[in-house]
Amino acid sequence: MTHILIVQHAEKERLPGDPGLTPRGHKQADATARFIAGTVRIGAVLSSPLRRARETAEPISSVAGLPVVLDDGLRERMNWEPESTGQSIDEFLVEWAEATQDRHFAPVSGDSSWLAAKRFSESIVEHARKLPEGSTLVVVAHGGVTVDLLRTLAGDDAVHDQYPWLMERGIPSCALTWLSCDSRGLDVVQVADTSHLDAGLVVNHSIA
């Protein structure tokens, strides 16, 4: 069995396109890296290619002494890029809500929820099966696609019953979601844990 730790990217600047982290976001990322390094044996560090994820992965890479491996399959379900799509933020949010409601809806600015979960799962499993048993694959990604994956793995009813706040508030910055991977596939162990962060660093994720 390989353990998988999905790290929600740290707090980002509230800007369109490909924003980086806020000063608080960098503190969140540093604290998370220290916790992970003291808790698990890191086998590899993967990251979405988006800047907010890369900047969150860099401190983890540093403490682990491993490179950050970028994987496009880990990118967010949708990303607001008005220069390329022509969408206003209001139009983007309407599409985000529709894609959340209808998992097969294909938005202008990204993938359907179903497709995002599929590519995310395939990327994770591919990398996890290359690691020695007992090691941990650290994956830095995004709240939307992580929730998409949880909905696929556990089912919508289970997600709504066990984690009713996920659909409304999203995954907090630098929250940790634990999965396991064996020959049968992926299983959910723990969702959106922020206990490693000081109270002042716990901030709900915003898709905007």
What topology does this entry show?
Blueprint: E1 2-8, H1 23-39, E2 42-47, H2 51-64, E3 68-70, H3 82-85, H4 89-101, H5 113-128, E4 136-141, H6 143-154, H7 156-162, H8 164-169, E5 176-182, E6 185-193
Parallel strand pairs: 1-4, 2-3, 2-4
Antiparallel strand pairs: 1-5, 5-6
Could you describe the 3D structure shown?
Helices cover 43% and strands 18% of the residues. With 208 residues, the chain is an alpha/beta fold. The chain has eight helices and six strands; from the N terminus they run βαβαβαααβαααββ. The longest helix is centred in the N-terminal third of the chain and has 17 residues, at 23-39. The protein has helices at residues 23-39, 51-64, 82-85, 89-101, 113-128, 143-154, 156-162, 164-169, and strands at residues 2-8, 42-47, 68-70, 136-141, 176-182, 185-193. Strands 3-2-4-1-5-6 form a six-stranded mixed sheet, sandwiched between helices.
Q: How many strand elements?
A: 6
Structure classification? alpha/beta
Shape: globular
Order of strands, widest sheet = 3-2-4-1-5-6
Rg to the nearest angstrom?
16 Å
Gist?
The chain has 208 residues and is an alpha/beta fold. It is 43% helix and 18% strand.
Keywords:
18% strand; alpha/beta; 43% helix; 6-stranded mixed sheet; 208 residues; 6 strands
